From TrEMBL:
SUPFAM superfamilies: TATA-box binding protein-like. The lineage of its organism: Eukaryota, Metazoa, Ecdysozoa, Arthropoda, Chelicerata. GO terms for cellular component: nucleus. One of its GO terms (molecular function) is DNA binding. Belongs to the TBP family. This is TATA-box-binding protein. It is found in: Nucleus. Pfam families: TBP (PF00352). Its main location: nucleus. InterPro entries: TBP (IPR000814), TBP_CS (IPR030491), TBP_dom_sf (IPR012295), TBP_eukaryotic (IPR033710). PANTHER family: TATA-BOX BINDING PROTEIN. Keywords: DNA-binding, Nucleus, Transcription.
Amino acid sequence: MEQDDESMTNTCDADDPTYQPQNEKVINDTAEENTSECAIIQPSISTLPPVLPVIPVTDSGIIPKVHNVVSSVDLCCRLDLRKIAFRLRNAEYNPKRFHAVVMRILQPRTAALIFASGKIVVTGARSESDANLAARKYARLIQKLGFNVRFKNFKIQNMVASCDVKFPIQIERLYTSHSQFASYEPELFPGVIYRMTRPRLVLLIFVSGKIVLTG
């Protein structure tokens, strides 16, 4: 099956000068002062937009370990949840508790929430490729029950990863230096919550050196 398949039955789916910041008007004191046609005035610092902190890129050798990838896909058809729960193994459906079928497979080890609208949410994958493979397996199982399934709009919704920098982190100093992007309330949560904008991530940073990344 392909992600944008129309039918699950057909496929398995300069040189310009650059001036350094200055606080004064640039005036040429040489004999060419009278021939100069322009002068540069540096804007007031208060008028400049806030600048994101610049974090140097280094080869630290730290590679975050992915623990969970959450993805979604649209099967583009209405589903009979009772039929799915009755006909498929490892499928549970209790409409009084939750209006979706909960189904699990072992390869890759994941769980899926299957909704009557045809939407599926897959959790527990350890990589994007595993998430895609698992979504396709759920779609194929449902298709075999006679539903007119199509595999559309597969998307990674969220990822959770962690790493260990192997040294203690002065989280109070970190919070003070980056308070524009971080929050720290030790009486409520023991770590600094740091929100990055590029890429859009949320980091939970602990004094032990452990970091949890979500986004």
